[in-house]
Amino acid sequence: MAKKKKSESKRSRSLKKALSKSLSVFRYGLKALELVWKTSPTLTLSIAIFTLVSGLLPAAIAYVGKLIVDSVVLASHSNLNGDRNLALGFVGLEAILIVILAASQKGLTVCQSLLRVLLGQQVNVLILEKALTLDLAHFEDSEFYDKMSQARSEASSRPLSLISRIFGLGQSALTLLTFSGLLLHFSVWAVVVLIMAAIPSFIAETRFSEHAFRLFRWRSPETRQQHYLETLLAREDYAKEVQLYQLGGMLLQRYRDIFDRLYDEDRNLTIQKGFWGYLLGLLSTGAFYAAYAWIVIEAIASKISLGEMTMYLVVFRQGQSTFASALTSIGGMYEDNLYLANLYEFLEQPIPKSQGIITKGSVSEGIRFENVSFCYPESQEPVLRDISLHLKHGEKLAIVGENGSGKTTLIKLLTRLYTPSNGRILLDGVDLNDWDIDILRKRIGVIFQNFVQYQFTVGENVGVGDVERLNDDREWEVATEKGMAKPFINNMPQGFGTQLGKWFKGGQELSGGQWQKIALSRAFMRSQADILVLDEPTAAMDAEAEMNIFNHFRSLTKDQMVVLISHRFSTVRMADKIIVMADGRIIEQGSHEQLLVANGRYAHLFSLQAAGYK
Length: 614
Known about the structure:
The protein has helices spanning about 1-25, 30-40, 40-80, 80-130, 135-140, 140-155, 160-185, 190-220, 220-235, 235-245, 250-300, 305-345, 405-415, 435-440, 460-465, 475-480, 485-490, 510-525, 545-555, 570, 590-600, 600-610, and strands at about 365-375, 380-390, 395-400, 420-425, 430, 445, 530-535, 560-565, 575-580, 585-590. It is of the alpha/beta class. A 6-stranded mixed β-sheet has the order 6-7-8-3-9-10, with helices on both faces. The longest helix has about 55 residues, at about 250-300. Mean pLDDT is about 80; it is low at about 20-25.
């Protein structure tokens, strides 16, 4: 008895699961419809009207076909002009219905094509708007980055696909309803056979759709690897190293290996889908010809007219095709829902943000780090440990240390790209997390070691430093004068209008040192910034050019706080305060003279570099 109850309970759970799975095809239908309607109400309404017309006309055409055959038989026996004209009138009516059906189907295709373009743009904008709300840590999280890649890859077409299938399902339902009305005059069993014959194909379609989506999600990292290898092989900024190190063959082989692995999976899925689709399709074919024979036998026995036989055959053939199409639409809707689930999982991902509203400090004391530690997400090992330091207004701070000591991470915390795991950072007595983020960012001018070389004009490359004055040519002049980029810009063919980079026609490439002067000018575009952060800003320049820039730079930033990372001690020694970092900690701090007297790590590194210049 207990076993029987357990078995019944198991069957009940299985039935509920199957029902839930079946209903899930409509889960994102309303969201997709809302998105499509917002994209273009006119096109959405047009698609609905064309769908309605396309759903009703096939049964009318089949019935008129029956009238044509019966009237032809009648006219052939009576030889009356009235009967002949009636037959010709039915032919004309069918022609008109066919023309209307063709127009509605073509209109449906045109509207869907237009809506697909608009919707693709709309969804991509939604994804990019979401990307703008992400923290730097999200972009560095490979799993989350995969979600964004998956959302961008196919989801832009899926909402329209889902809506098209929903409308298509409605169209099929209307057609089947009218077909069933005609078939019921013949036999209720004909309707039952029509329905049952299409179910196996639907089961196969749903099963393989789910499997295809699992493959899509599982192999996203490999697809991203493939895209990366394409970039290495086809981008000009990688070409010189790929050629000089003869990496082309190795990279191309890796690309082929990934493709072969992915293709094997696709091939197996395609073969299985094709095999089972053919096998299950035979059931539908068998059902049709059984019904065909049945209808023919009834016509031979004179139980139905020749016109009715023709109509029933057309209705059964088209009805079977329509029903199979409806079930395939449901299977496709299930697949679309899987992809849309991925899109909305990304779009609805909660992004915790500190809602800072403070726009002015409580005291004028500069920047203060208090016992700050930081761990990257998913990591237990701190990158920074117990960092405490104070930088007053107008002071210049230099940070030195080996690669990996935590210097750049410290800068990212200061610019609030990261949030400390422990401790806090204060600006003028206010925790960075309490500042209004836009006000805070306007107070900071930054040059990172791997600054962006925008494929824009010279002026725009400088102007992005203050997007509100992006096209202000007077500010370009001032900023490039401060950044010492003005002399070589004046010698360029179109001056500030010169296209930089090689991606677009007429683009001009700069040397590493010239690019760094452009980046330095970009930082000076933020004239209201009282904090300048420079992460190896002159690494591509020679020592003399760097010395000239920093002598010039120091005179320009008397009232500003400056945080400088550099490996050149000739530059570092100009700072008011120097901190030495190792393994995420501050191991020494003081002025250049104080650190030399202390004869610690800084003094050792300084003597090594000084010896190299002798």
